[in-house]
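Quick one:
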Amino acid sequence: MTTRNRSRLIGIAGAALAAVALAVLPVSIAAAEDAPDDGLQQVIDPNQAQGTGRVVLDDGHIDYGPTLNTGEWIIQIHDDTSQPSFWRMPSDVVAKVNDASKLTAPDDPAYAFLGLEPGTEVWVIPQVRRPGVIWAGWNTQEPGVLDALNLGTTQRILGVDGPGEVSVYLQAGNFGEPQPLWSTLDAFPQDSWIEVNTHTHANWVFSEPGVYLVRLEFSGTLIDGSEVSARDTLRFAVGDATDAEAAFDMEFDSSQLEQGPSTEDGAGAGDTAPASEAAAGGSLGAVVGVVVGVVVAALLIAVIVVVVASRRAKARSREARARRGGETAENEGGRA
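Output:
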């Protein structure tokens, strides 16, 4: 085997390994491409106060995300609808999606993932700020998180209780293809990777009026190596006729999660991951292990092929030299 062929074989094996690595790496969520003054360039005050009491928010800017400002990894809502801003517990906030948010599903195959007939009336929390409509996103910008989180966090949507379907997607500009993030039309849980110091807004599409409870989890690894995880519930009251106050006392039906031992929301790590999710994680790990094992085996085979081919080439070279030596001796003998 020539040097060129050996290099080509090793290159192919390396490319296969790189392809598998790309397949198993988490993909980061991309920030929306909006104008510089859209509020996405925020810096959160490390001294931002903790809000108290229940609030219904139907206009202005809110984000949810993990925080460490209480000394524990929990999920909170950054209420920026008025000044000063507050951190609030999700149980104290209902996001009211009023009728001013109503739009119709587009007649475009690119939006088939919504599962809606074109022209269907829907309620939309927009990706880009729209006056008179709540503007909800997520961030990993709480100063304690910025200082302590290593790389990023996994957002896991565990399930949704509500009268209709919910789909969340990103779209870059007016002509970009929609990028679905999660939907009630797909099986839960649904995961996405969010880098530290991320602030993102997306389009939230609700197919029916009523109260929706979104159960979610944020987990990650801190710089000191410790693992953190917390769960909580986001509350949305969709439609002007929906009683937002009633949403405060509604609880997510956790029985659908096949839940194991848990702790209370808010203070501490939140629910322990359900057995079904642990099994899913184990299955994913097993699949990744098998794939990586196959690639490693392929690389070993490639190396063996290269070594065997090299040894055979050396042997053929020795035989050729021996034959040439024998022929030389015979010729010299003949001349003698």
